[in-house]
Amino acid sequence: AGLTTAEAKLRQIDVNFSDINARQFYPFMKLPDHDVLLRLIYRKKSRTLIGAQMMSKHDITDHINYYSFAIHQGMSLTELTFCDTFFAPHFNQAYNYHMLCALGAP
Questions:
Q1: Which DSSP state fits 88?
Q2: Mean pLDDT by 10 residues, the chain (106 residues)
Q3: What is the pLDDT at residue 41?
Q4: Residues 9, 17: contact at Cβ < 8 Å?
Q5: Which of 12, 39, 50, 102 is buried deepest, with most CB atoms within 10 A?
Q6: Starting at the edge strand that comes first in sequence, how are the strands of the sheet with 49-56 ordered?
Q7: Measuring CA to CA, which residue among 100, 103, 105 is closest to residue 22?
C-alpha cells in the first residue's frame, strides 16, 4: 500500500522506514503460525505513514488494508501505535507486529 522507499526517493520525499519480522500468535498457542515481514515507510520530519509492505505465508490481506486506510487518512506512526485494532485476547499478542514496528521506527 502506498509508496515503496525507492518510489519515495524518486519523488524526492525524505523518508525513513522500520522493518520487523515477527510471529502473529503467542508461542504457547497450538495454531499454525508463520513469520510476518512488515515494512513501514514514513516521512522523516512528520513521521506520517506513506507506505507499507507485508509478506507472510498466512493470509494477511485484511492487515494491508489497514495501512491503506491509515495512508489515506494521513496518520502518523504515533497515531498508529494507539490504534489497537488487531488485539483479540487469547488469539494474538497484546503488542502485535503492527504496534512494534511503529514503536521501533528510528
A1: -
A2: 95 95 71 82 96 89 87 92 67 65 74
A3: 97
A4: no
A5: 102
A6: 15-23, 35-43, 49-56
A7: 100
What amino acid occupies position 68? S
**Cβ contact 100:28 at 8 Å:** no
Strands (E), the chain: 15-23, 35-43, 49-56
- Between CA 53 and CA 39 the distance in angstroms is 5
Tell me the residue type at 17.
F
Take residue 54 and report the three cell numbers written for it: 507485508
Q: How far apart are the first and last CA of the chain?
A: 21
Residue 39 is predicted with a pLDDT of 96
Contact call for residues 102 and 81 (beta carbons, < 8 A)? yes
Query: In this predicted model, what pLDDT tens digit does every residue of 73-94 receive, in sequence order?
Result: 999 998 888 776 666 666 656 6
pTM above 0.90, yes or no: no
Give the 3-state secondary structure of residue 14.
coil
